[in-house]
Amino acid sequence: MNAPERIEAADALVVGGRTYGSRLLVGTGKYRDFAQTREAIDASGAEIVTVAIRRTNIGQNAGEPNLLDVLPPSRYTILPNTAGCYTADDAVRTLRLARELLDGHSLVKLEVLGDAQTLFPNMPETLAAAKTLVADGFQVMAYCSDDPILAKQLEDLGCVAVMPLASLIGSGMGILNPWNLQIIIDRLSVPVLVDAGIGTASDAAIAMELGCDGVLMNTAIAKAGDPVRMARAMKLAVEAGRESFRAGRMPKKPYQASPSSPVEGMIAKA
Amino acid sequence: MSVPIRITLNGAPRELPAPLTFSQLLDELALAGRRLAVERNGEIVPRSRFGEARVVDGDRIEVVMAVGGGE
Q: Is the separation of the CB atoms in A236 and A208 below 8 Å?
């Protein structure tokens, strides 16, 4: 058995009863074209990819390629999300349409935004939507603020994963409050995934080292200078961060150095 | 005898010949066979009912698809 197989067998991500070898989830927006989308997602190794649900352009789409032809649901878990929704009602409607679109698929990403400048989540609406969706049989992965109390409420409502932001969506500012994330990770039983704010590979590694179960990102890959290369970097960063977390880091010793080479046998002392 | 119906389709007014099933509506829009979902007046119209369900005057219809997006 080679090393990657060993990792997957021992350390799979389980969300909504399904098992995944990759802990990197990626969005499909902001790419140059479908060819780049496909190549980057392939390089990321992601098995769960998010999509948005939008009105079909009437009369302008004859022969237009469809995202789901590029990313077939037979190969990927398609995670419809409610990006752009500002009310619980809109989010619920959108996900019911998504379920119909995806032949009854129930795993979804809930995201209810509070304002257009920050795209910060509207948590009262998010909680209301989560309650309705869970009652309607959806498996809800919820984008949320990094407030541990609200994150726990989402778990208590029956969400299958809770996804606090690291920083604002699309900002690339990295993890602004690792302490809050740590509290959420420690207190929740469902998977905790950082969603939003990852800017570069080290951000993803840090999220995983904190003990996150996974990372969801879009802009950090799509808007990198070379998206395909960054997708690969993110794959490696998530794997490295996860392995580092599982290995357990050495204790920090801020005031006491400790040489790695033997202190005996120095030629100068002979 | 065929009185046209007025609907709102993806937010825009539209006049169509009646009677009209959802299958015929999608044909009319050159969307037949595409992977999409339809909502009428806030309620899902299941694909299995496209052949029989009729579009009626005043319907507010949304036709959606999956597009690139993440957060």
A: no
pLDDT tens per residue across span B27-65: 988 888 888 999 999 999 999 999 999 999 999 999 999
Beta strands in chain A (DSSP E): 13-15, 18-20, 24-27, 48-55, 77-81, 107-110, 139-144, 161-164, 193-195, 214-217
**With contacts defined as CB-CB under 8 Å, which chain B residues touch A54?**
64-65, 67, 69
Which neighbouring-strand residues pair with B9?
A: B12, B61
Q: Are A34 and A66 in contact (CB under 8 A)?
A: no
CA distance linking residue A129 with residue B22, whole number of Å = 29
Dig out the tokens for B20 from the structure.
């009209």
Distance of alpha carbon A147 from the chain centroid: 17
* B-interface mutation test, from A48, A56, A89, A167, most B Cβ less than 10 A away: A56
Q: Report CA torsion sign: A44, A49, A52, A58.
A: positive
Contact A164, A151 (CB under 8 A): yes
- Distances in Å between the Cα of B21 and the Cα atoms of A89, B17, B55 are 27, 10, 6
**Chain B residues in contact with A51 (beta carbon < 8 A):** 66-69
**ipTM value of the model?**
0.92
- Shortest distance between the Cα of A182 and any Cα of chain B, in A, equals 22
- Residue of A30, A109, A252, A253 marked catalytic: A109
